[in-house]
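Dear Dr. K.,

Following up on our conversation at the group meeting, I've run the structure prediction for Histidine--tRNA ligase from Croceibacterium salegens. I'm pasting the input sequence below exactly as I used it, so you can double-check it against your construct before we proceed with anything downstream. Let me know if the numbering doesn't match what you have in your notebook.
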Amino acid sequence: MAKIETPRPIRGTQDIIGPDAEAFAHVVETFERVRKLYRFRRIEMPVFERTEVFARSIGETTDIVSKEMYSFEDRGGESLTLRPEFTAGIARAYLTDGWQQYAPLKVATHGPLFRYERPQKGRYRQFHQIDAEIIGAAEPQADVELLALGDQVLKELGIADVTIHLNTLGDAASRDAWRAALLDHFRAVKGDLSEESQERLEKNPLRILDSKDARDKVYVADAPKIDDFLSDEAGRFFADVTSGLDAAGVKWVRAPGLVRGLDYYRHTAFEFIPDEGSASANALGSQSTVLGGGRYDGLMDSLGGAPTPAVGWAAGIERLAMLVGEGHADLQPHVAVIPVGEDALTVAQSVLAEIRSYGIEAETSFRGNLKKRMQRANASGAAFAVILGSDELASGLATVRNLSNGEEYKTPIRTLDVDLHTLVAVHKFNRGSQPDPLADALEGTQVKMTKDGLVISLLGNAPLHSDDQ
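The predicted structure tokens came back this morning:
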């Protein structure tokens, strides 16, 4: 019989497990925690939309629409597209689902996106992003709020070596005047521009400012600057954004070359970029932007809606996970419960339930002798092992072993959950892990493991034995 061939993974996709998966989850969990602090509503969006949603919002002439979208016809002959980004779908929902009633609306989401592009480090054909938007707020304070959210997400992830690169695109009148000046400037040297920039010239001259081609850079350097065309209102808007960032303690630098090519972008454009020579810059290589976005006050018009101010950003989860790496190292210590013998299995299940009810991560081994189960507990990175054998069941005292130093002590099975909660809290505090109310309360606490039980000295108070709890 012929061997059945195993299907191969699709190029540009990834199967994630182990530390990479933990780093991925850590990014999402941190984003969820911080967006709640800022009162951004959680939303869920379809992974596919009618193709026109992206063609009209992103622009039919862009590389995303013309080359990178995964589009297909369904059985009814309708053209559908797997979402290449979040904003267009969120804008469609705002118009079709009556979300205007919530304006100004602060929303956040995360999930998979799809683009057919060349896979490389930190870039995939199915990738994932976190995304935040404020819709229906024309005030510059909305931009500050959104930028502060992004800044705090990165800081909470431990990614501190980045700076916001910030620019203004002005209002519609400012942008139109700037565009006309750019057309005149680049038309005069059209023959010297790269082929790609010559093609872009009449369609969207702002995109030439993004060119990495050496033939274009000399002309980009002395191209007209947006500051020469800003209206008084647009100038005040940008000044309010920058002063708000200063007040919020958010680090930024001016980036006059930072643009957004699509006509619906207005005012603020920004990218969070690793500082030169930093660990993040070295880790990402050429994929330097960590988080990016801007104000898109003209987008709703392109989808048939009323003019609606909006600002948003997105960040690649895979890219952030690369920067987080294994450094966050599963910050929550866990406990391995090791039953020895048939009689201990039921007790172990009860102990596991009690430990988990305290919010402590715990697991057990289902096979092997004591030695092998202890080896698995050590390999898993457990902080403590709880051994339940015949002696422990007979005495009612569990054996708890600190796997970092080998110390052991006995504690009543009936109070095991309380003792472990205290032990884990102290362990977390000593490791400088995530904030924990009990760990914070135990600053200065010393824990001793003795054959008589757990002895805790609380800030010089009398010792507390586990038997007394």
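Two things stood out to me. Residues 115 and 125 are 5 Å apart (CA to CA). The first strand starts at residue 41 and ends at 42.

Best regards,
J.T.
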